[in-house]
Design brief:
Elements (H helix, E strand, L loop, with lengths): L11 H7 L3 H6 L3 H10 L7 H16 L7 E3 L1 H13 L13 H12 E3 L8 E5 L6 H14 L9 E5 L3 H18 L5 H8 L11 E3 L4 E5 L12 E7 L8 H9 L7 E5 L9 H14 L9 E5 L24 H20 L3 H8 L14 H6 L11 E7 L7 E10 L5 E11 L7 H8 L3 H6 L3 E3 L9 H14 L3 E8 L4 H11 L3 E4 L3 H17 L2 E3 L3 H9 L1 E4 L4 E4 L8 H13 L12 H6 L3 H9 L21
Parallel strand pairs: 3-8, 3-9, 4-6, 4-7, 7-8, 10-14, 12-13, 12-16, 14-15
Antiparallel strand pairs: 1-2, 5-6, 10-11, 11-12, 17-18
Helix pairs in contact: 3-4, 3-6, 5-6, 7-8, 12-13, 19-21
């Protein structure tokens, strides 16, 4: 098959129209595949992420039978789940609700795709849609189906319903109980329920039990976190976007490893904090779908109904991208009016971020005092940058106790279009003394430092007590500069920290140093410069989670003098941002004629003794010292 990579162009429709799907269109007429075609034929208004999911489905249908693709799309399984859904009553009305095409697409993807053993292909799935779109109904259908139909002939199977707290967990669980109570009054499910020992008494308040098979649906909240020792066949976690750590979630996943027909479904709208695992997983599955030719996430499903831009807040015709119920005539008028009212009231109250976040299903930094916008931070990512032999400004933020020690490198450069830019990279040193262990430090900060260290983005301190090891920091920094042949223009650091450390650097390196007071009058200009540069696209960076989290954690603190960055609580790390602002104190003027860096005398001062000798006496010397007009030559000079 053709190699398709959409990570740069994002032109999913362009690639779709280049390919011939006529055989697939003829062979597969199920509702799920029809929805995929309608999305890509633009008969249905959909956002980029759903177009990606539709394209992935059609491409995978073409891949069936290939040696490196051990999956198949079972029309029988699709028919079974949709037939069951046609019986499943909506607990609000007591009658089955006719599913919309997008809802059928969800069920067909989750149940239709199978692996070589006949089990479900997608062992993990992300489903995200705007607030109030009826996702509870779909989840209840799914759980009731897997519990009643997929457990036939099996015993001692565990099923999980979970959410962030007890109240939220029981909301979904209560819906499932109500649906099951009505389903078991309908044939053929009544006979099946009698056979397995499922009746209104066994649908208890605390759990749902098939008495004869001991299959159990267990509601366990994330607050309780008691997922240990269970091996869930199907696990559904609602509103997972609010969960800030993977610690408890990993217990669910690890418990499913040996379950042959496992599935873990994560459901949520977007939340204000974009650094949570749910958003990281969304970005991962987006990249996997864009890299169509790779097989890195074949068992991970992503179905995300969201707007494509914050600007669509003013384009109500596009709101169906995140609110697919707008395509339902009986719901459209009331829902649209409700969305308009919410948009308008949020604008008047200055909280439009809530509408964009929850109703448009877009991730953003919601707080009005946030330093940077998520889109600007993500737009700055580039795949690689060659630092060899470049001029660099180094910023340094030294750790006292629990904070990380951060080094930031700012590389000014001119891009291919002639635009002045600044590429930023960081390396952090991670202490764990105050947290008690590196594992506890990871949970506290919400960053997998040990994995990030393998990627070269940070270093876990080698100090036996978990404190910052100055020798380790010194050796890493000097080696980094030497190995990459960097020309250090200036080393800027916090005036009140790391005095002994920087004195050691001055003795051993010959770099130019600048201690900077961390007060508004000194840091407000580089603080504003960095913020503006991100907006204007003058900053580039690699896909570095340590740097990203620090940038998104930073908020603005304003006083009578100006602005500087701060954080809302101690565990939110912004050490990298502090170091970055230090580096930009002079780095932002790199291209200006008045910059001290562009002063020829300063250039000589930065040279090593050997560089000065070569500059003065070398064959290619352009110092001008030997020019005849600088001397009054006479015969006595020879």
């Amino acid at each position: 098959m053709d190699k398709i990579d959409l990570t740069v162009s994002h032109d999913v429709l362009g690639e779709y129209h280049k390919l011939d799907f006529s055989d697939i269109r003829r062979k597969y007429r199920d509702p799920g595949t029809q929805y995929a075609f309608e999305v890509l034929d633009e008969k249905v208004v959909a956002g980029y992420l759903i177009k990606l999911a539709a394209f992935r489905h059609l491409r995978d249908l073409q891949r069936q039978g290939a040696a490196d693709f051990p999956y198949m799309y079972s029309l029988k399984e699709v028919k079974n789940i949709l037939k069951f859904a046609s019986f499943a009553p909506n607990v609000d009305t007591g009658e089955p609700s006719r599913l919309m095409p997008w809802q059928k697409f969800i069920l067909s993807q989750l149940m239709g795709w199978r692996n070589a053993e006949g089990g479900k292909r997608y062992s993990r799935a992300i489903i995200s849609v705007g607030r109030g779109q009826g996702k509870t109904y779909i989840l209840a259908i799914l759980m009731c189906y897997t519990f009643m139909m997929e457990s036939l002939g099996l015993s001692n199977q565990d099923y999980l319903v979970s959410s962030i707290n007890y109240k939220q967990t029981n909301k979904l669980f209560g819906y499932i109980k109500s649906m099951l109570k009505k389903i078991i009054t309908i044939e053929p499910f009544m006979s099946l329920a009698n056979e397995v020992g499922l009746d209104s008494r066994s649908i208890q308040s605390e759990q749902i039990i098939m008495r004869n098979q001991n299959n159990v649906i267990r509601p366990i909240s994330h607050e309780a976190g008691q997922y240990d020792s269970f091996h869930f066949t199907t696990a559904i976690f609602d509103e997972i976007g609010e969960v800030k750590s993977r610690e408890k979630i990993q217990k669910i996943i690890s418990g499913q490893v040996k379950v042959p027909n496992r599935q873990f479904i994560q459901i949520s709208t977007s939340y204000p904090d974009p650094t949570v695992p749910f958003h990281e997983d969304q970005k991962m599955i987006q990249q996997a779908m864009e890299q169509d030719y790779l097989r890195d996430a074949d068992s991970y499903l992503g179905l995300i109904w969201a707007q494509d831009s914050l600007d669509e807040v003013f384009d109500q015709d596009s709101w169906v991208k995140s609110n697919p119920l707008l395509d339902l005539p009986s719901e459209a008028r009331v829902l649209m009016q409700g969305l308009k009212d919410k948009r308008d009231s949020d604008m008047l109250s200055g909280s439009i971020g809530d509408f964009q976040n929850k109703n448009m299903n877009l991730w953003l930094q919601q707080s009005a005092d946030s330093y940077l916008n998520l889109d600007d931070v993500n737009r700055a990512i580039i795949p690689k940058f060659n630092i060899e032999g470049r001029q660099v400004y180094i910023g340094f933020d030294y750790s006292m106790m629990s904070d990380n020690t951060a080094l930031v490198f700012v590389y000014p450069y001119i891009d291919e279009g002639g635009k002045q830019k600044w590429h930023i990279e960081q390396h952090s040193f991670i202490p764990w003394n105050k947290a008690g262990s590196i594992e506890a430090k990871e949970k506290q900060d919400g960053l997998a430092y040990q994995e990030l260290a393998k990627q070269g983005l940070c270093t876990i301190t080698s100090h036996p007590e978990g404190l910052i090891n100055e020798d380790q920091v010194f050796e890493w920094m000097v080696n980094y500069v030497e190995e990459n042949n960097l020309e250090v223009m200036l080393f800027t650091y916090d005036y009140y920290g790391a005095t002994r450390f920087t004195q050691r650097l001055e003795i051993n390196t010959g770099w130019e140093f600048l201690p900077l007071k961390q007060v508004t009058s000194f840091v407000m200009n580089p603080t504003k410069f960095l913020q503006t540069a991100f907006v204007e696209g003058s900053i580039t960076r690699l896909d570095d989670k340590v740097l990203e989290k620090a940038l998104l954690n930073a908020v603005i603190k304003e006083d009578k003098v100006g602005i500087q960055v701060d954080k809302n609580k101690a565990t939110l790390k912004i050490d990298v941002v502090d170091a970055l602002i230090d580096a930009l104190y002079q780095g932002m003027y790199h291209f200006e004629e008045f910059s001290e860096i562009n002063n020829p005398e300063k250039a000589v001062e930065r040279m090593t003794p050997q560089e000065r000798y070569d500059w003065l006496f070398g064959e290619n010397s352009d110092s001008g010292v030997m020019d005849a007009d600088l001397y009054d030559w006479s015969d006595d000079d020879f």
